[in-house]
Design brief:
The structure is a homodimer. By secondary structure, the first copy, chain A, is α/β, with parallel strands linked by helices. Chain A has five helices and 15 strands. The first copy, chain A, starts with 27 loop residues before the first helix and ends with a helix.
Chain lengths: 258, 258
């Protein structure tokens, strides 16, 4: 099980949850802890590594999780509800100065100025990492927090408005009141846009299109939870997760019989 | 919330359940009790009345639950997984000597011989009730138990094979070794066949056909849980139940706005 920290889930912030059958008047944090205890008890390892990209290699998937690469025969996507809209210029300069993983791509910008826009605290660590490599690091948080940043990181409490550049690559991040000259813009989102995570999945009304067995449009890929659409409910996510797991096991069984 | 006793659910008999997120190494009985506590805590009344039939009255539904009739603007079916096959002759003589509710139809057979075939203990009470009205009551249990029956009820531990009769009505129950001359045959099943519960619902592979919002093919009717098909899992039933409830509320809101 690969995922970022649970800090990015809305569940942790819920003061009280009453509509997951079996638990009543429970806080989101307590529920999350009960879920984690259960997962640990079942011997399932959670790796706090954020998956940046999944490649369909035909008979297996290559999973790029920062510094590690994993291989898997089947994938269950449970990435949550991504509200993210692409920034102006983001798609245009993706791979040409725009990236989602500072740890992976940071070294490409040694002694260059870079900016990091982050929706959550995970970005702070990445900004500190970049500050050891890059000449200049601008940190633009999209959340309230204590911002534990190195002295070398410049905190810019402004809204990032557009990524601009020339025909070859991005070279500027336009903010509310500034123009930051940078060679790279990293964006840390709570939820990576699905299209960026894995290419070629059919999307319906902004969510991963699934059939009633939770199979996505790509063979071997299943999905569950908020990334498959409304209603955004714990009970639905858990139920669909159960179905997705059974479907994935069935898929593996069929593969093994071939 | 209308339903028979929980004795008929498989959940109660499960020695250990590990795949409903949040609970681990829990018995079916303990899980059922946790669910019941939650339901009570939320102020939802459970009426242990088995629904025999639902009639679509256009702008509302009439729910026949034995001695009581209820009205509702929307219905959520959560009847569980019905394995029942119709008995030979059952459909043919339905309403002509074959019935599913002894309490409702028993009085029609005053001083007549009747048989009651039951998949669970609920039938015992019904047989005892019939014994106060009818001349002869044969009880054919399809389960192992202590059979708490009146002296007037004759226990027949044989398999019911066919209901036979003339063109007008049923008059005979054929069992493995016997021919019982009766004026009525009552059948108490764990799960009433959907087609008998509510007429005109679209069925797909033996289950109620639903869309992703848990809406069945009839306006105002929603369904969730094992009656909507595989996988037969608690987590899926709970998740789909949550979606069905939200859909039903949305439906009511739209109705009220008209």
């Amino acid at each position: 099980m690969l995922g970022g920290t649970e800090k990015v889930t809305g569940l942790m912030k819920a003061p009280q949850i009453d509509n997951y059958l079996g638990f009543m008047e429970i806080s989101g944090t307590d529920m999350l802890n009960a879920f984690k205890r259960h997962v640990e008890h079942m011997g399932i390892e959670i790796k706090h590594e954020k998956v940046q990209n999944i490649l369909n290699m035909g008979d297996y998937f290559g999973i790029n999780a920062g510094t590690n690469i994993y291989e898997a025969k089947t994938i269950i996507l449970a990435t949550g509800h991504g509200k993210a809209k692409y920034m102006h210029g983001e798609k245009e300069y993706l791979g040409k100065g725009v990236g989602y993983c500072a740890t992976c791509d940071g070294p490409l910008y040694k002694n260059k100025p870079v900016a990091l826009i982050s929706e959550n605290e995970e970005g702070e660590e990445e900004a500190n990492y970049l500050s050891e490599i890059c000449s200049e690091v601008y940190y633009l948080p999209m959340y309230q927090g204590n911002y534990k940043l190195n002295d070398k990181v410049k905190l810019i409490k402004e809204k990032a408005e557009a990524i601009e550049g020339n025909e070859m690559k991005a070279n500027l991040l336009r903010t509310t009141n500034n123009e930051l000259k940078v060679d790279a813009v990293f964006i840390v989102r709570n939820v990576i846009p699905i299209g960026q995570l894995i290419e070629g999945l059919e999307i319906e009304e902004g969510s991963i299109k699934i059939d009633k067995n939770m199979a996505a449009s790509m063979t071997g890929v299943f999905a569950c939870g908020d990334c498959t659409g409304k209603p955004y409910q714990i009970a639905k996510a858990v139920g669909d997760g159960s179905t997705a797991a059974l479907s994935a096991v069935k898929y593996l069984d069929l593969q093994n019989m071939k």
